[in-house]
């Protein structure tokens, strides 16, 4: 009966290299690459020697791959440092007020809200507070002294001076009157309850306003 003897011959055996153990890393390091290149030169066909351009091209390719790998490791280290820095910055935002451009806010019974609009010019700015059913709860007029940011505040009471019920309210702002009336974007201030670190960046969780990315925040104070 014939016996088959296991062979260690591989594609690298002709170059004088032994098969690597399975437990060893299969990645090609700089020393391994230079060893392969040396064996390739020693075992090349004398009638068809390796062209200098091909040899230099192989060296250049390995250097490029190694450089990209080193750059990737450096970028990962920088990203880790930036994420840690964001975490520290995020902790300092909790408990502060953030100003974000929204039209609606969830309020507790009798709770007020404050914010600002950007007036196009001096003159009256009219604010309407509307409940979830579309009924007007309160109307206010604030005089803008000049073009620019104009602050407003609603005390959470209706036209009769009674505390408004808990619910979702929409705030509308207009400048001018009649055909010349112009709608203004409303920015509402809310307390930062917590901060989430998402793959896309920091997300602020605001009281009554939900979650908003840091890029949507107009001011923190």
Q: Which properties best describe this structure?
A:
221 residues, alpha+beta, Immunoglobulin-like, 7-stranded antiparallel beta sheet, 24% helix
Short description:
This protein is of the alpha+beta class and 221 residues long. It has two helices and twelve strands. The strands form two sheets. Strands 1, 3, 6, 9, 10, 11 and 12 form a seven-stranded antiparallel β-sheet that branches.
Give an account of the 3D structure:
The chain has 221 residues and is an alpha+beta fold. Among the domains are: 27-90; 101-189, Immunoglobulin-like (Sandwich). It is 24% helix and 35% strand. The chain is built from two helices and twelve strands, in the order ααββββββββββββ. It is elongated and about 105 Å long.
Secondary-structure map:
Blueprint lengths: L29 H13 L9 H40 L5 E5 L2 E4 L5 E7 L3 E8 L5 E9 L3 E7 L12 E9 L6 E3 L2 E12 L2 E6 L3 E4 L3 E4 L1
Antiparallel strand pairs: 1-9, 1-12, 2-7, 3-6, 3-9, 4-5, 4-7, 7-8, 9-10, 10-11
